[in-house]
Amino acid sequence: MDMVMKFGASSAVVIFTKSSCCISHTIDTLIRNFGANPIVYELDTHPNGKQMEKALIELGCHPSVPAIFIGKELVGGANEIMSLNVRGNFALSTVYNMHEEHVYVYLVAIL
């Protein structure tokens, strides 16, 4: 479970998928349409995929994929993401870092 939480916190948006899951592909596309660039871990091709899938199930993901982390928090699966989208509870947050002179854009889920 620690590995999943570590990977889930590694980026603003992280998606755990399987390459054969069409719903995972749909959720990835939806999130990218908001301008986010998620890190995607395909469990069926990852060396520790079976352990990560077991950990996602223990965290309450049924089915195990897709599982989406936003802002280092487990938001849930496809049902939760689609519900947030339908209710209009996704927003882009822009942060300007003066020291690096960069603008960062984050996808925010308003729960």
Helix and strand layout, with pairings?
Elements: H1 2-8, E1 13-17, H2 22-33, E2 39-42, H3 49-58, E3 67-70, E4 73-76, H4 78-86, E5 90-97, E6 102-109
Parallel strand pairs: 1-2
Antiparallel strand pairs: 1-3, 3-4, 5-6
Written overview of the protein:
The structure is a single chain. This protein is α+β, with helices and mostly antiparallel strands. It has one domain (2-109): Glutaredoxin. Helices cover 34% and strands 30% of the residues. The strands form two sheets. It has a four-stranded mixed sheet with strand order 2-1-3-4, with helices on both faces. It has a two-stranded antiparallel sheet with strand order 5-6. The chain is globular. The two termini are 23 Å apart. InterPro entries: GlrX-like_pln_2, Glutaredoxin, Glutaredoxin_subgr, Thioredoxin-like_sf.
Give the SSE order as H and E letters: HEHEHEEHEE
Quaternary organization:
single chain
Identify the strand order in the major beta sheet: 2-1-3-4
Enumerate the spans where pLDDT stays under 50 for 5 or more consecutive residues. none
How would you sum up the global shape? globular
Rounded mean pLDDT is: 84
What does the radius of gyration come to?
A: 14 Å
Which descriptors apply to this entry?
Glutaredoxin; 34% helix; globular; four-stranded mixed beta sheet; two-stranded antiparallel ribbon; alpha+beta; 111 residues
Summarize, please.
Residues 13-75 form the Glutaredoxin domain. With 111 residues, the chain is an alpha+beta fold.
